[in-house]
Amino acid sequence: MNFEIITEYLDSLVEKEGIPSVDCIIYQDHKEVFRHMHGTCDEKRTVPVMKDQRYLMFSMTKVQTMIAIMQLVEQGKISLEDEVSKYLPAYKNLMVKTEDGQVVPAKEPLKIKYLLSMQSGLNYDLNRPGIKRVMAEKGQKATTRELVDAFVESPLEFEPGTHFLYSLSHDVAAAIIEVVSGMTFGEYLKKNIWEPLGMNNTFFAKPMNDFPKLAQQFIVNENNEIVPMEPSCDYQLSESYESGGAGLASCTEDYAVFADTIACGGISANGVRIIKPETIEIIKQNLLVCEASLYELQHNMGRVGYGYGCGMQVFMNPEAVNSPAPSGVFGWDGAAGSCITMDTASKTSLVFTMHVRNCGMSYGVVHPKLRDLVFGKE
Predict the structure, then answer these.
(1) Residue 228 confidence (pLDDT) above 70
(2) What is the per-residue pLDDT across 327-341, written as a single tens digit (0 to 9) for each?
(3) Stretch 23-46: mean pLDDT
(4) pLDDT band at 378; cut points 50, 70, 90
(5) Of 368, 342, 340, which Cα lies nearest the Cα of 354?
(6) Cα–Cα distances in Å, from 76 out to 184, 212, 219, 333?
(7) How far apart, in Å, are the Cα atoms of 311 and each of 194, 211, 226, 227, 349?
(8) Alpha helices in the chain (DSSP H)
(9) Residue 265 in 3-state DSSP?
């Protein structure tokens, strides 16, 4: 890879595209081979971005949630074929919408594999009646389990396993982790991922945040202008909720250590194993065996060339987008434009952070460009 070209591209995002700040770390086989930061981290755009700058990671949380739940699969404590209701009884007698607008009992049970692959039938409606009811009753003390149980007070959008719809599915996975482990989700992550890897700057955000070193959050408004916004994480439904889909705050350095560990088969630079290489290979298998699901990922979400495994997109057909990157590259991204991308074959990982909501070019332009620059064959 050409580090000079990567640096020039990152700088162009700030200087030409107006993104306030960018940070990028690349690891190869436990060695940090590249780090470049550019831009500012405050509302007035005067304070340079710092090495330990913190960000709301949003859906990059999902990658940690998937490693956590696959640890339990690896240990034989759960199976991808298990019915969700085995752990969350509220998910036993599900209702589902039909194409003609009726609501009927679901024919198929919801399995864990459908949660991980976003084929559960749930959606991403944060104002669903069940959430509103629990918040009215419990307020900011509403827990992960209480809110997740309330998701299914609304019918599923489709029969489990028949379509792909990005949704609250991974929040449900976090609740299963709580039930199986006997810990809160945050306690589980701390014990099994953060502490073993030395990720001391990773924790759960709140609905509204004011913790030290948090980069100013921006948003692309209706006039396509990048403007400051409040430091909110709307996916953290209450002060006591821990969203498995979008709840973490962290820094580039922590996520880079995590990404390197996964790219190197689940073992860290200091020799700590958090997951087996064969389990990572399971994570990378495309679970969208239904033709409709694969179409919806590639065209409704714009992920042409990709499949979707356990909570992460997996590059299956580079030729479809004329990419020089190899098949097998996998990872995910977040609502503020950051991404985590890994390749176990070359033991290479990329973590890119920024802090701009509603920035469509992040997913359609920036992340594919970085994928090709970092993982492309020379």
Answers:
(1) yes
(2) 999 999 999 999 999
(3) 97
(4) low
(5) 340
(6) 20, 40, 43, 29
(7) 19, 28, 29, 31, 17
(8) 3-15, 61-74, 112-116, 129-138, 144-150, 169-181, 185-189, 195-197, 252-263, 277-283, 291-295, 361, 367-375
(9) coil
